[in-house]
Amino acid sequence: DPGALLLAVQAVLEDGVDHADVHQQPLGPCAAIGRLAGQVPFVLPDADACPRPVKEILFSAAERTGVVLTLVANHAMALPKRPNVRMLQVAGGFDVADDEITRRVSPGDLVITADIPLAADVIARGAHALNPRGELYSADTIRGLLTMRDFMDTMRSSGAVTGGPPAFSAADRQ
């Protein structure tokens, strides 16, 4: 259950205690992202693909907690006028934003991304990776996700028509 996993991660970040067995009401994905964003030293969303509701929650979390939020994208975007909210615009091109996030991430930072290879790089560097729906990537799960991603890429390359993830829904905004 991703909600329970996020609660356990939040508890560890808050006080270093494993609360995985504590039965709490799981948070919705956006609430989990907003809450976790306030627990880490630095947040780097992969802003090119980050849904607007997630960015708005990150802006609120940055204002509430003072955490440094740096959006990385290959195009300019409007940001709230806050000293701890920044935009890093990179050149266009394949994986340019991902490479910059990987270069800047430090242990304990939080990266918001749906890009599985980027999440794997982030985890390898000791940071946290969370997808825009609030599901935490972990060292235990990322290898299987990479394998599935590569398999689906092979299927698409051979002409199979596969669908992408579902659209960001109202339930995802909770």
Tell me the Rg in angstroms: 16 Å
Major β-sheet profile: 6 strands, mixed
Number of E-state strands: 6
Give the SSE order as H and E letters.
HHEHEEHEHEEH
Fraction of residues in helix: 40-55%
Structural description of this entry:
It is a single chain. The chain is built from six helices and six strands; from the N terminus they run ααβαββαβαββα. α2 packs parallel to α3. It is globular. 43% of the residues lie in helices and 13% in strands. It has 174 residues and is α/β, with parallel strands linked by helices. Strands 3-2-1-4-5-6 form a six-stranded mixed beta sheet, with helices on both faces.
List keywords for this structure.
alpha/beta; six-stranded mixed β-sheet; disordered N terminus
Short synopsis of the structure:
The protein is α/β, with parallel strands linked by helices and 174 residues long.
What's the SSE blueprint?
Layout: H1 2-15, H2 29-37, E1 42-45, H3 52-65, E2 68-73, E3 85-89, H4 96-104, E4 110-112, H5 116-124, E5 128-130, E6 136-137, H6 139-157
Parallel strand pairs: 1-2, 1-4, 2-3, 4-5
Antiparallel strand pairs: 5-6
